[in-house]
């Protein structure tokens, strides 16, 4: 199966290394029970579905109605709205302390929802002949191999070899992070070219969409600041890989694939900055708490 993104083969290799090791690290740091507990709490699950499934299509429709967007951009924006479960969320959301189980549980649940909703929406907004060339069986195999197997392997290592899990977690996460950065840098030229070709109005609309969903996730995240960070990231990082597969069949109009690449070009640096801001704020808060305890003592 061809890569879902039109990058060079070594870039695709970086992406797969990042995905596999990121999911392995979630398995090494979270059990099935922890992931289940993160999803079974009723209020949290309700907010999760509201932020990721019900609100994004409304936001997309409002943006599409307000901005004079080219049809390819509007179609891609709507498909992204109904396709939660962005795999890049692993790299950012796992940086929130104590939220590895929640991040893993969110990713799996949202990916399943996206695999149901996005193809259904594509039946409406994409040309019928384009859908015939989407290899759904191969897509499923890829998801299981890249996401499911590493996660299960990590959990098995944690369950039966806890010492080994502690030893390999940091090196695996480091390699995953480096691979992610390498894939972003190596594909930067293609993403910039795609973004420039769409025009400023399309980019502004995408930027508003990303920031709006980030705000929705943060607002619905509840009182736990770390979980709010996870939900904000998981909500705005849509499943660009799945959407690209859906629009890739429209090869007669490259504006569709360019729209997906432009969205990725925007969402990655925005979430990187957001993650850094959260880390700095957390560090300052912890330092203030320590200073307060020291003064009290």
Low-confidence region ranges: 1-7
CATH topology: the name is: Na+/H+ antiporter like fold
Radius of gyration: 19 Å
| Largest β-sheet summary | none
The overall strand count is: 0
Characteristic terms for this protein:
297 residues, mainly alpha, Na+/H+ antiporter like fold, 82% helix, disordered N terminus
Describe the structure.
Helices cover 82% and strands 0% of the residues. It has one domain: Na+/H+ antiporter like fold. It is an all-alpha fold and 297 residues long.
How would the blueprint of this fold be written?
Blueprint (H helix, E strand, L loop, with lengths): L8 H21 L2 H9 L1 H25 L4 H11 L7 H5 L6 H26 L2 H4 L4 H25 L1 H25 L1 H11 L1 H20 L5 H12 L3 H9 L6 H42 L1
Helix pairs in contact: 1-6, 1-8, 1-9, 2-6, 3-4, 3-11, 3-12, 4-6, 4-14, 6-12, 8-9, 10-14, 11-12, 11-14, 13-14
Outline of the structure:
The chain is 82% helix and 0% strand. With 297 residues, it is mainly α.
């Amino acid at each position: 199966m061809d890569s879902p993104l039109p990058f060079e083969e070594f870039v695709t290799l970086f992406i797969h290394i990042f995905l596999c090791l990121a999911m392995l690290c979630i398995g090494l740091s979270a059990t099935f029970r922890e992931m289940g507990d993160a999803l079974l709490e009723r209020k949290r699950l309700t907010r999760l579905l509201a932020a990721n499934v019900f609100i994004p299509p409304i936001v997309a429709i409002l943006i599409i109605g307000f901005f004079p967007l080219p049809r390819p951009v509007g179609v891609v924006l709507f498909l992204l709205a109904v396709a939660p479960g962005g795999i890049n969320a692993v790299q950012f959301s796992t940086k929130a302390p104590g939220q590895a189980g929640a991040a893993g549980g969110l990713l799996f649940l949202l990916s399943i929802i996206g695999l149901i909703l996005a193809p259904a929406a594509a039946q409406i907004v994409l040309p019928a002949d384009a859908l015939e060339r989407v290899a759904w069986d191969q897509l499923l195999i890829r998801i299981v191999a890249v996401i499911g197997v590493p996660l299960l392997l990590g959990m098995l290592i944690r369950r039966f070899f806890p010492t080994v899990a502690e030893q390999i977690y940091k090196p695996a996460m480091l390699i995953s992070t480096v691979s992610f950065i390498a894939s972003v840098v190596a594909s930067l030229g293609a993403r910039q070219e795609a973004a420039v070709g769409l025009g400023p109005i399309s980019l502004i609309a995408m930027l508003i969409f990303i920031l709006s969903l980030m705000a929705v996730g943060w607002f619905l995240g509840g009182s736990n600041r770390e979980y709010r960070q996870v939900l904000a990231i998981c909500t705005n990082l849509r499943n660009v890989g799945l959407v690209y597969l859906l629009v890739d069949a429209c090869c007669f109009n490259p504006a569709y694939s360019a729209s997906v690449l432009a969205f990725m070009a925007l969402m990655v640096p925005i979430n990187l900055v957001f993650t850094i801001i959260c880390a700095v704020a957390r560090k300052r808060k912890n330092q203030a708490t320590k200073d307060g305890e020291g003064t009290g003592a």
